[in-house]
Amino acid sequence: MASQARLRPFRTTAFKLSAIYLAVFTLFTAFLIGYIARNTSEILQIQMRQALDGELNVMASQYQRGGIRRIAQMVQLRSRQPGANIYLVTDARGGKVAGNVESVPPAVLTGSDSNAQIVSYVRLGEEPSGQRGAALVRVVQLADGFRILVGRDVSEIEDLTQLVRRSLVLTAGLMVALGLVSWAFVSRRVLKRIDSIAETSRGIIAGDLSGRLEVTGTDDEFDRLAHSLNAMLARIERLMLGLKQVSDNIAHDLKDPANPDAHPGEAALAPAASQRAPRGAAGDDRGFRPADQDVQRPADDRPGGSGFFGCAVRGIRCGEVARDVFELYEPLAEEAGVKLRLERRARCMCAPIAN
Amino acid sequence: VHRGGETILLQPREFRLLEYLMKNAGTVVTRTMLLEKVWDYHFDPQTNVIDVHISRLRGKIDKGFARPLLHTVRGSGYVMRDDG
């Protein structure tokens, strides 16, 4: 039982909706951030490749003009600039001629791959700890066996990747936390209303028809539900009250001395009731009564009388009813080309049979 | 009853109808209200019987006069009102 009570909040609709919303939104956000990061990284790499190609083209033209000396001077000059790219010029034996790179994997220089590739490297004089960086490089072989390596550090892309990863983790964490908080708030509020409705319903089932569901005035779905149920309860209460009054009246009529079927001994023992109903207690007018007399006393004379019987069991004159109906429908019939005629052939009265 | 110096003869029920409309002058009264208050009937006649009575009353009190007093409120009922 205790474990069921603990699991109860997790079985609520609010929890399920919150969980679905959270999962869908988290997945969507992760996809979106990953997509943006991937595209950004690709764009940066493309721009880097284009920049490297441009530099290599310039160097190739300078080599044709001034040979290796000119290239070496140009590399030395560019290497000194702050935030410079990676440059390395080697001779046919792999010996360093100029550049700002201390070491790169030998396969990069000796290999035949002239496409851009990411390699690890150590920048000259800037990596005292020997920590290697990563760079997108391209190697071009010149005449006489000289090779030029031009590269660009890709730590920016790495930083961007790290930034995106941190953002993703932070966003996902925040969303989970906010989702949990909102779920706790919603489920607490929803559960409170449902508990209140259940509690009131139990009271009504127990017999308290005057009980009503709480309406907070927020006009939310619970308020609308409470309004509908309250209206239904009010209607049921009225019907129950009417039924009770009818049954009370029937019970009273069965005991009434005016009732011909009432027990004679009971009538004899109820003088007060007999005085209250002189006509009914007279004993000589049981059965059919003149139409303009009440067969039974009006309900208002009785304790708890509701008027149901008082209205229903009076004798009525059929002629009056026919005259009223004639008067009401005669113009309508006349418009329709029908001639209505009212005739009185015999005295007609409707009266209830006593009991 | 009299209107504009003219005497208008009404049946008792027409008189009661006019009386109720005049007591509620300026207020829209529905057909159900008229049936309940003038005829003391509590049911839906399902016919235009009230409209026929109103038409007869209108023929007596408004016919021959420039300004009608009894107006139909479409979809609702009738109102007694002097627009002048």
Write the topology of this structure.
The complex is a heterodimer of chains A (about 350) and B (about 80).
Chain A: H1 2-7, H2 13-79, E1 86-90, E2 96-99, E3 101-103, H3 106-110, E4 117-123, E5 133-141, E6 147-153, H4 155-205, H5 221-255, H6 264-268, H7 271-276, H8 278-281, H9 308-312, E7 316-317, H10 318-335, E8 349-350
Antiparallel strand pairs in A: 1-2, 1-6, 3-4, 4-5, 5-6, 7-8
Chain B: E1 2-3, E2 6-7, H1 12-23, E3 29-30, H2 31-37, H3 49-61, E4 70-73, E5 77-80
What does this structure look like?
- With 355 residues, chain A is an alpha+beta fold.
- Helix content of chain A is 57%, strand content 11%.
- Chain A has helices at residues 2-7, 13-79, 106-110, 155-205, 221-255, 264-268, 271-276, 278-281, 308-312, 318-335; strands at residues 86-90, 96-99, 101-103, 117-123, 133-141, 147-153, 316-317, 349-350.
- In chain A, the strands form two sheets. Chain A has a six-stranded antiparallel sheet. A two-stranded antiparallel sheet of chain A has the order 7-8.
- In chain A, helix 2 packs antiparallel against helix 4 (155-205).
- The longest helix of chain A has 67 residues, at 13-79.
- Chain A is rod-shaped and about 145 Å long.
- With 84 residues, chain B is an alpha+beta fold.
- Chain B contains three helices and five strands.
- In chain B, the strands form two sheets. In chain B, strands 3-5-4 form a three-stranded antiparallel sheet. A two-stranded antiparallel sheet of chain B has the order 1-2.
- In chain B, a hairpin with a 3-residue loop joins strand 4 and strand 5 (77-80).
- The radius of gyration of chain B is 12 Å and the shape is globular.
- The model of chain B has no long low-confidence stretch (mean pLDDT 90).
- The A-B interface holds A 324, 327-329, 331-332, 335 and B 13, 39, 41, 45, 47-49, 52-53, 56.
